[in-house]
Amino acid sequence: MIKRVWAWARRKLFSTTFLKFGIVGASGVAVNYGIAYLGYIAGLSDILSLAIGVGTITNYFTSDLLVWPESTLIESSQKTLG
């Protein structure tokens, strides 16, 4: 039983898709902190909402391009439009 659970965990946790999700998440954290820090340096107090928004958008597009390249937004819109 333990061997089966360990084998499943190895397949799932060390898969390339899981690692790509980790890269996308780490890049989102870097974008959030980077924008928030630049706003802090510039003296902007409401920059946190911008940092969260930009981080979310970059996570979406990075995930779309890196994790799920077979169904990217551009290809999906071209299929939809004709």
Quick take:
The protein is mainly alpha-helical.
Layout of secondary structure:
Blueprint (H helix, E strand, L loop, with lengths): L1 H12 L2 H27 L4 H21 L5 H9 L1
Task: Specify the oligomeric state.
Answer: single chain
Distance between the termini: 50 Å
Order of helices and strands: HHHH
Mean pLDDT score: 78
Percent in strands? under 5%
Main sheet record: none
What's the shape? elongated
**How many helices?**
4
Mind telling me the C-alpha Rg?
Answer: 18 Å
Structural domain count: 1
Helix content estimate:
over 70%
Quickly give the structural class.
mainly alpha
Extended strand count = 0
Q: Uncertain segments of ≥5 residues (pLDDT<50)?
A: none
Task: Give a description of the structure.
By secondary structure, the chain is an all-alpha fold. The protein has one domain. Helices cover 84% and strands 0% of the residues. Helix 2 runs antiparallel to helix 3 (47-67). The longest helix is centred in the middle third of the chain and has 27 residues, at 16-42. The model has no long low-confidence stretch (mean pLDDT 78).
Name the features.
82 residues; mainly alpha; 4 helices; elongated
